[in-house]
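Work Package 4 report. The design task specified in the project plan requires that, given a folded chain encoded as structure tokens, an amino acid be chosen for each position. We show below one input record used in the internal validation round.
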């Protein structure tokens, strides 16, 4: 198989598994953009219905999400690769990439137990303008409550509360098996390079090392 040297990565997994943290680190490592679909939709959410759906943990329509992703991927900074964080979240969204000839090399599925997910999400803090992610226990800022770079106040996401978290996890669990099966089949067909499941309970550094080793093995051999 001819390996596409551009690095186009999808990170899938339940909320709180560390996709955002890893996508930030990978984007910095390979100097390619991280595309967080959640962040794109929040910027778009001038429409009250979209905003309410996001805050309640509901899925946004495939049509809206796919159009937002396609517009972002058309920008020049994606020519040499990208990291997709939080997309696809449904089988229709996964198929959309294939139908539109949007090439993906690597799919990483970060898996984590319910108990740890709850602890992570309830302790998560974000820097809104940059998307930098912290945790009050596992990845605390240097100065409590403040972003390491700008010293601006960190905030909790509106959907990081127990009832909405449970709702989001229920939706994720309904969708994920079809997405996994789809990408395993795409590997067999030679349409993507690899699908890999990652133990999200490992440290941030160990997870990053595992992902980088997989990417480098295929991209730079």
């Amino acid at each position: 198989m001819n390996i596409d040297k551009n690095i186009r990565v999808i990170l899938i997994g339940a909320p709180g598994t560390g996709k955002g943290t890893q996508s930030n680190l990978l984007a910095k490592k390979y100097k390619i953009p991280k595309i967080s679909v959640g962040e794109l939709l929040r910027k778009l959410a001038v429409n009250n219905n979209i905003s309410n759906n996001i805050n309640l943990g509901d899925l946004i329509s495939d049509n809206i999400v796919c159009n937002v992703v396609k517009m972002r991927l058309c920008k020049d900074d994606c020519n040499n690769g990208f990291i997709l964080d939080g997309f696809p979240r449904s089988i229709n969204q996964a198929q959309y990439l294939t139908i539109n000839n949007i090439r993906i090399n690597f799919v990483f599925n970060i898996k984590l137990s319910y108990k740890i997910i709850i602890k992570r999400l309830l302790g998560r803090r974000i820097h809104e303008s940059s998307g930098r992610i912290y945790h009050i226990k596992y990845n605390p800022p240097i100065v409590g409550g403040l972003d390491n770079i700008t010293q601006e106040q960190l905030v909790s996401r509106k959907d990081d509360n127990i009832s909405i978290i449970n709702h989001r996890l229920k939706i994720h669990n309904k969708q994920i098996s079809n997405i996994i099966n789809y990408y395993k089949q795409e590997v067999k067909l030679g349409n993507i390079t690899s699908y890999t499941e990652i133990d999200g309970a490992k440290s941030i550094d160990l997870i990053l090392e595992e992902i980088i080793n997989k990417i480098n093995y295929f991209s730079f051999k």
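Residues 7-113+176-219 form a domain with the Rossmann fold fold (CATH 3.40.50.300). Validation will be extended to a larger panel in the next phase.
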